[in-house]
Design brief:
Shape: globular
Strand order of the largest sheet: 1-2-3-4-5-6-7-8
CATH class: Mainly Beta
Strand content: over 45%
Number of domains: 1
CATH architecture: Beta Barrel
CATH topology: Lipocalin
Order of helices and strands: HEEEEEEEHE
Number of strands: 8
Number of helices: 2
Largest sheet: 8 strands, antiparallel, barrel
Distance between the termini: 57 Å
Oligomer: single chain
Helix content: 10-25%
């Protein structure tokens, strides 16, 4: 009987050391990249919501909406410009809580890939 109780306690301690549920989604919020495009300063903002949807803005004008899912450091994303069924997969590299980079793993949508791959985005307040 003591062995069973000790085994159960040991199992409980071991299981409690593992995180059973992911914490808050660190991607939720508004992220901006500012770059020079065709000689002009261009602002690209991604607004990621906790419900798994996002919107994209170029110079404060909406241009894309879609859905995303973040699993650990991997982002699965699709949107209206590329069409459903064309999910892009990116590694998300966070630098603290205020900046990130997306690194393409696989994405057949050229516009999305060219607009996000390896660019630094800063979190807006």
């Amino acid at each position: 009987m003591k062995k069973i109780i000790l085994s159960c306690l040991l199992a409980l301690v071991v299981l409690s050391a593992f995180k059973l549920k992911d914490g808050p989604n660190p991607l939720v919020g508004r992220w901006e990249n500012i770059r020079i495009f065709q000689g002009s300063k261009t602002s690209l903002i991604g607004n990621f919501k906790s419900d798994g949807t996002y919107s994209g803005f170029i110079n404060k004008k909406a241009f894309v909406t879609g859905k995303y899912q973040l699993k650990h450091d991997t982002l699965y994303i699709d949107d209206s410009t590329c069409g459903t069924g064309y999910t892009g997969i990116y590694q998300v590299q966070f630098f603290g809580q205020d900046s990130l980079k997306f690194h393409v793993i696989r994405d057949t949508c050229q516009g999305r890939r060219e607009g996000t791959d390896n660019f630094l985005f800063r979190k807006l307040k």
